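Intended use. Records like the one below are meant for learning the mapping from a protein sequence to its folded structure. Do not use them to infer anything beyond what is encoded.
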Amino acid sequence: MLLAQSVMAAESYPVRPIRMIIPVAPGGGADTTGRLIAGEMGKQMGQQVVVENRPGSGGVIGFEATARATPDGYTIGLATFPIATNPSMFAKLPYDALRDFQMVVQLASGVNLLTVSPTLPVRSVQGLVDLARKSPGKLSFGSSGNGTSMHLSIELFKQMTGTDLLHVPYKGIQQAIIDTIGGQIQIVCDNMGSVLPHVKKERMRALGVTSPKRSDVIPDVLTVAEQGVHGYEMTPWSGYMVPARVPRDIVLRLNSEINKAISSPALKNNFALNGSTPVGGTPEQFTEHVRREIEKWRRVVKAAGIRAE
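Structure written out for the chain above:
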């Protein structure tokens, strides 16, 4: 009887609107993409998917809200990059990144662009490494805060090149970009959609992409790894997760619907504009990806002595 009830519930799901928790403020790239996914899912499933922004504390507020939601499939959460870095950043979290969630599907894999101020006399990654080694602690880089992909992109770079660069955290990355353009700081490594318009207008200079392969958006810019930092890779990512006890049939239904939404024309255009790549796949593939990322960034965070702000 219980099995029959479970099957019937999965077949009729959803019978009311679904809540999508996005752990960032409205207006950014993750929010825009999340709203597009919500719109596509709503059309596909015949029920509205309502976006709820829960920003703050490096995603902790939104992640906790997802973990504590009723496990009935009517709350899904956007799992952004900090879900893998927060376990190393915080002494205590109100959730466990692997125990308290079921990963549904990876949404996309991004790429950061290593850029410098036009006032800096370097035009390659090796040129930046050489200059940094001549002036340890003199060059500064900006980010939107400790543990963000912008911050960890450079911390990984420092550890792999043996350089000493000064971290300047900002409340928002746009001010860091403005200060890089003006020469107050020298380096920013942010997502493609954020910095590429400035690179095209020659306000900033692109030195390399952080992905293992060159980006189709700017194929002439070499990867950081190609320029001597062998094995370097930083690919910010996102995906979807639900509370741990959501029935398996509903997890698979959500996986199928999001995989379908990813291939829609609206999402393809969104990914192209942001220089990111749609991923998709199974819940198991995304779970393993998150597990690997937690271990990778734990080593980087520990070596750099980074703590949550």
